[in-house]
Specification:
79 residues, mainly alpha, 4 helices
Length: 79
Amino acid sequence: MAPGADEEATSSIDMADKWIKDAIKRPGAFTKKAESRGMDAQEFAAKVRKNPDEYDTRTRRQANLAVTLSKMHKSKKKD
């Protein structure tokens, strides 16, 4: 392993954690919206993405983030 490679890996993980923390402005809000409609977050995200005109901008963005984070979580499990 090259000198500093371990440090670079740690740095990229820190950067990934930072953008996720910055992206989540209202922790639990999207899940609460989903549960109030009798769905889990992924079901609600799929519904929002299929019918974007029925939802406000914030909800559409939360749905997109939920899908993105879900994909990241799945790819971590494969490793």
